Amino acid sequence: MEEIEKLKCENEKLKKIIEVKSDLISISAHQLRTSLSALKWIFKMFIDGDLGKLTNEQNNFIQKAYHSSEKMISLVNDLLTMSHAEYTSIELNFKEEDIEFLIEQTIFEFSGETNKKGVELIFIKPEHHIPPIRCDKIMVQVVLQNLVENAIKYSNQDGKVFISLNAKDERIEISVHDNGIGIKEEDRENMFKKFFRAPNAIEKENIGSGLGLFITKNIVEKHGGNIWFENPENTGTTFFVSLPIENKNIII
Predict the structure, then answer these.
(1) What sign does the dihedral 194-195-201-207 (CA atoms) show?
(2) CB contact at 8 A, 130 and 167
(3) Are the C-beta atoms of 121 and 81 separated by less than 8 Å?
(4) Three-state SS at 243
(5) Contact 205, 211 (CB under 8 A)
(6) Nearest to residue 162, comparing CAs of 179, 149, 145?
(7) DSSP letter at 174?
(8) What is the C-alpha to C-alpha distance for residues 239 and 227, in angstroms, rounded to an integer?
(9) What is d(CA 148, CA 16) in angstroms, rounded to the nearest whole number?
(10) Which 3 state secondary structure label does DSSP give 13?
């Protein structure tokens, strides 16, 4: 019996190590994909002459860089697909962070993509000062990146994405609204499930892992928060994230 208990204990330790590695791969891959996508769209702006005319030699180099970035994005998507552990074992590093600054930083990261796609990112700043919130900066950035990336991806040409921030009852609420393709009634219950992609989302953008919202929900909940969405007919989609301003518990 003692040997069996020892084996069970070793098995649990091994399982936890595997989960940690898988979690870290997924989070890192998502951040890499965001940065690579931003580079890709900047290269595309050069190729299309949006930033001035290039010489033939310059154009050839930029073309190669653009295609390399596409390959790397594809590789990162494969990493995300392979890494599918539940987010049960990440140790969050809680510190006081300026959430308004994190939102502005996220908007800046997507400036190349929004310019090229003709989508306008609008940050509706709070009327009153928002105090620093206790959170894991990197994880909250992943949440913001995923929601903004989806809003841009599924917006229509010349669309607008509105991001707002408010504080109420010792919590902050972030909303990301787009006027894009929306979410069909039959897909609503599956939106936060692992690997799920709605048919209209695949039709709009065939590249995707179906892990973005799954990861986002897990991170938000590990911060003691909530995430939900509203999808009035023919008006796009609004995702909401509510987080406590003071989060004293480090969740593993």
Answers:
(1) positive
(2) yes
(3) no
(4) strand
(5) no
(6) 179
(7) E
(8) 7
(9) 31
(10) helix
